[in-house]
Amino acid sequence: MESVFIIENPIICSFDTIQFINKTPTGIRCKWYFPGGEPDHSESQKPKIVYITPGNYPVKLIIENRFGEKDSVTQVITVKQGIDEVRIEYENLWICGSRPDLIPLWYVNDQLDDTDYICIDPVNAVYRLRVKTDEGCLSPFSNTIIVDWID
Q: C or N: which end of the chain has fewer Cβ atoms within 10 Å?
């Protein structure tokens, strides 16, 4: 009997959900421990955990068969700084903003625009924003701005 589990991706961004998969044969009890994670423990075969604070965290799986024999395995995941929220603030339909460590990803009518800034043309369109950090962490989508031009 040996504890085995798979991590979807051992390097994640804070605020992202990570799933762990127990590959130990069925019929064996399992207990997971996720220091720094939310939740911090589970008995699920495929728990999903969120980490808020960047750092390196151990993940431990302990298994036990019907005879009381136990085994455990620990792996480490790395949590990079992520982004929990992005909001567009605007005045007179002019959206601006700049932060050197963030890469803006503008979506116009759900299509990714290839510029790093956007000036809203007076047309019917839906604008949303995501940002990406230098380390590749993506934010959730921002609030939506709907521009409805009326003559």
A: C
